[in-house]
Amino acid sequence: MRNEPQESEEQVVDSDRAEVVVVGAGIVGLACAYYLSTRHRDNGIVLVDPRPPMSLTSAPSGENYRNWWPHPTMTAFTDYSIDLLEIIARKSGNRIHMTRRGYVFATRQADPTALLARLDIGYGKEGANHVRIHPSGSSKTYRPAALSDWESAPNGVDVIQDRSVIRRHFPSFDPAIATILHIRRAGDISGQQLGALMLEHVRSRGGSLRAARIIAIEKASDFVLTLQGRDSVTRLRADIVVNAAGPYAQDVAAMLGEQLPMMNVFQQKIAFADGERAIDRTMPFSIDLDPQIIDWTDEEKATLREDATTHWLTQPMPGAIHCRPEGGGEGKWIKLGWAYNRTPSKPEDDLVPDPRFPDIVLRGASRLHPGLKRYYGRLPRQMSHYGGYYSMTKENWPLIGPMKTKGAYVAGALSGFGTMGACAAGVLCAAWVRDAGRPAFASQLSLTRYEDEELMQQLPDGTDTGVL
Fold it and tell me: In Å, what is the CA distance from 448 to each residue of 8, 10, 29, 444?
């Protein structure tokens, strides 16, 4: 979606018009088109993207979902989105492969007081009703994740402090883990299947997808978008433009003479075949909350310290490194991720992951899962190393709603929660476009929140924004 120089010699052909043009065919753009298409038919919806659907940022999605965040607005937003995901799962015969093994946050802290305070804040006024405490010697009622599917799993959070129970249900964890927070309304889905289902629905309602890059947008009585295709340049008129361009949303906004309070931060993951069976296949998505110093040998540390570009790898690192099995109980693959990067960068189509990352994330994850140390220096050839942009606001809340330009809307800044938040983003965007009823939290996720000084003072300061 970059603002590139316009052509001077190619013939510009005026094309037909659309009621709504959705810029971007990632999971958020598809969700917007999906929910808008129930009202707009017969080519009313046109998706525009130079890349194939569900590529770039959506392709490397962790495909996880959870309903706990450090603020009740985000908890309400993701709860709402999970409701919508469950409707799709039921109607499609669970084509999206929804599971619900939960999220497990693990810590070596024996006193969970601070963690419980965060839970209460995240769940709001009803926080205490969501939390079940299982102190040492009284955890017989804890129901392991392996026995729970997405339709029958409990809600709320189990806080486990009985180390014998932790050892029994999470045998691959570091024996020093003293407290587990098991977020129960959480799990994973197939983001690719969700996107495919949504695109099929849009097309069945007369919508279409155009492989082109938007190089200009003019606004008069309506919008005129100039599209650079593979072999030609065309113009497309539209009544409404939805900016769901992911990391290129700011470029689209600039074509309208606007700026968005967003930044792009590149994050990475790896996946590989766990031939050593280091990770229990029934384990839910698991996060090590504790900061750490990476497990290098003394010789490795000395070498890293000598180089100014690698010295940081010997310093304390943030928590939130995560791991989960991929492919269910019969699968072999596992995913590891660690969103430690905090430096914004300009988006690029050809992403170049850091070749050091696989070793970094493997050693970091081995602190929670010591069995992963078997792979030191010998990661399998069956490994995938990939990355994508966390397009985000400073407070890590999405932007969904009207832009300053009349008829233009934004659905973006869904950072690392695009898959889990896409359905809610699509419904909210459609409601804004139609001026229909919206949930109470909708305005807080729009640009108008920056006019609410009291709300902005409540928001996380960048150190506890729920980034995983």
Answer: 39, 41, 21, 7
Torsion of CA 149, 151, 157, 162, to 10 degrees: -30
d(CA 51, CA 211): 7
Confidence at 40, pLDDT banded by 50, 70, 90: low
* CA separation, residue 41 to residues 18, 27, 185, 242 (Å): 10, 20, 35, 16
How wide is the angle at C-alpha 34 spanned by C-alphas 73 and 396, nearest 5°? 30
H or E stretch covering 303: helix 298-306
Helices (H), 68-139: 72-91, 113-123, 127-130
In this predicted structure, the answer to whether residue 402 has a pLDDT above a threshold of 80 is yes
Mean of all residue pLDDT scores within the chain: 91
What CATH number is given for 100-187+264-392 in this structure? 3.30.9.10
pTM: 0.93
Cβ atoms of residues 65 and 207 within 8 Å: no
Which SS3 state, helix, strand or coil, does residue 399 take? strand
Q: What is the mean pLDDT of residues 69-77?
A: 93
Q: Where in the chain is the domain with CATH 3.50.50.60?
A: 12-62+191-262+394-458
Tens digit of pLDDT for each residue in 355-375?
A: 999 999 999 999 999 999 999
H or E segment and range at residue 334: strand 333-337
Q: Could you tell me if 448 and 428 are in contact, meaning their C-beta atoms sit under 8 angstroms apart? A: no
| 126/72 Cα distance (integer angstroms) | 10
| Cα 118 from Cα 22, distance rounded (Å) | 37
**Cα separation of 61 and 57, whole Å?**
7
Query: For residue 290, which of 112, 108, 161, 103 has the smallest C-alpha distance?
Result: 108
Q: Which residues contact 126 (CB under 8 A, 6 or more apart)?
A: none
Tens-digit pLDDT profile for residues 245-286 = 999 999 999 999 999 999 999 999 999 999 999 998 889 999
From residue 145, alpha-carbon distances to 184, 188, 356 in Å are 8, 13, 33
Residue holding tokens 């939290």? 441
pLDDT digit string (tens) for 136-190?
Answer: 876 567 877 665 678 888 899 999 999 999 998 999 999 999 999 999 999 999 9
* Strand partners of residue 234: 13, 227
Q: Which CATH superfamily is domain 12-62+191-262+394-458 in?
A: FAD/NAD(P)-binding domain (3.50.50.60)
Residues of the chain with CATH 3.30.9.10: 100-187+264-392
DSSP 464: S
